[in-house]
Design goal:
The chain is built from 6 helices and no strands. By secondary structure, it is mostly helical. Helix 2 packs antiparallel against helix 4. The radius of gyration is 83 Å and the shape is elongated. InterPro entries: IQ_motif_EF-hand-BS (IPR000048), IQCG (IPR042618).
Length: 316
C-alpha cells in the first residue's frame, strides 16, 4: 500500500492535526528567520521597499521603477535583495498565521518564475544582440582594414601616376624645347625668305612700272591707229548703206518683175486650159451633131428608083 493510500485511510481529524503541526512548525521557523532578517536589516540599514514588488511587472515597468541595479540580474548580494527576502518571508508568515494556507506564496512563486523567464528571454535577446554587435564590430574592423588598404592602394596608384606624369612632363618639355628650336630656325628662315621675296617683289614692281609705261605708249599709238581705222570704217559703212539701199531698190524691181512673170504664166496656163476645154466641148458637140444629124449634118432624103437599083446590086 502506498503512502497516499495510507494517508487517505487516516481519519480526517488526524489529518487536520498533522497539517496544523506542520503549519506551526513552518510558522516558528519563519518567525525565527524574520526576526533574524529584521535584526540584520537594522544592523545593515537596509532600505525599505514597496510591497508592489511582489506583483508581476514587465521588464519595462521594473526598469522604470529603478528597483533593480546593474548587478541584480547576475544574482549578486545587495541590500535590496535582502529587503526583498525579508518582505517575502514576512508576507508568507502573515498568510500562514491568518489563513493557514500559502496561496499567495504559490502565486508569488509563479510571478517570480515569470519574471525570471522574462529576464532569461531578455538575456537571450541581449546575447543575440551582442553577437550581432560583435559581427558589426568585426565588419567595422574589416571595413576599416579594407578602407586603409584601399587608401594605401590609391596612394600608391597616385604615386605611380605622379612618377609617370613626371616622366611624361619631362618628355614633353624636351619635345617643347626641340620645337622651340625648330620654330626659331623657321622664324629665321622665314625672315630671310621674306627679305629675298621683298627684293624680288621690288624688281617685279619696277618691271611692272616699265611695262605700264610701255602699255600707255602702245595704247596711245593703237588709239591713233584705231581712230584712223574708225574713220575708214565709217566711210565704208556709208558706202555699204548706199549699196544696201540700191540693192533693196533693185531687189524690189526684181521681185515685182518675178511677180509679173508669174502672173503672166498663170494667165497663159489658164488660157491654154480654157482653150483645151473649149476644144473638147466643141469636139463633143460636133460628134453629137454628127450622130444626131443636127444642123449641117442632117441627112438628105434619097429617091425610090435609086434605092431599088441599089438593092439589086446588093443582091447580086
Amino acid at each position: 500500500m502506498s503512502t497516499e493510500d495510507q494517508f487517505q485511510n487516516v481519519p480526517q481529524s488526524e489529518q487536520h492535526t498533522s497539517q496544523d503541526l506542520s503549519t506551526e512548525m513552518c510558522i516558528s521557523v519563519l518567525q525565527e528567520m524574520v526576526d533574524l532578517l529584521l535584526i540584520l536589516k537594522s544592523i545593515g540599514h537596509w532600505p525599505d521597499i514597496d510591497s508592489d514588488i511582489l506583483e508581476y511587472d514587465t521588464l519595462e515597468q521594473r526598469f522604470k521603477k529603478e528597483i533593480y541595479q546593474h548587478g541584480n540580474a547576475s544574482g549578486s548580494l545587495c541590500p535590496q535583495n535582502f529587503s526583498f527576502i525579508t518582505l517575502f518571508c514576512t508576507n508568507l508568515l502573515e498568510e500562514l498565521k491568518c489563513e493557514r494556507i500559502y496561496l499567495k506564496f504559490s502565486n508569488l512563486i509563479t510571478t517570480i518564475q515569470k519574471m525570471q523567464l522574462d529576464e532569461e528571454l531578455l538575456l537571450s535577446e541581449t546575447c543575440k544582440k551582442e553577437v550581432y554587435v560583435k559581427k558589426l564590430q568585426n565588419f567595422y574592423i574589416q571595413s576599416e582594414i579594407k578602407i586603409n588598404y584601399l587608401k594605401s592602394w590609391e596612394n600608391s596608384k597616385l604615386e605611380m601616376q605622379d612618377i609617370i606624369f613626371s616622366k611624361l612632363i619631362e618628355e614633353k618639355t624636351e619635345v617643347i624645347k626641340t620645337m622651340e628650336a625648330k620654330i626659331n630656325q623657321d622664324i629665321r628662315v622665314h625672315k630671310e625668305i621674306e627679305n629675298a621675296m621683298s627684293q624680288i617683289i621690288q624688281g617685279f614692281e619696277e618691271r611692272v612700272e616699265e611695262w605700264k609705261n610701255k602699255y600707255y605708249e602702245k595704247s596711245k599709238e593703237m588709239n591713233e591707229k584705231l581712230d584712223v581705222l574708225q574713220t575708214k570704217q565709217n566711210k565704208q559703212l556709208e558706202i555699204i548703206a548706199n549699196y544696201k539701199e540700191l540693192y533693196a531698190k533693185r531687189q524690189q524691181e526684181i521681185d515685182d518683175y518675178k511677180k509679173h512673170k508669174i502672173e503672166q504664166e498663170r494667165l497663159r496656163l489658164e488660157k491654154e486650159e480654157k482653150n483645151k476645154k473649149a476644144t473638147t466641148i466643141q469636139a463633143w458637140w460636133r460628134g453629137v451633131m454628127v450622130r444626131k444629124g443636127f444642123g449641117k449634118f442632117r441627112k438628105k432624103k434619097e429617091k425610090k428608083g435609086k434605092k431599088k437599083s441599089t438593092d439589086k446590086k446588093e443582091k447580086k
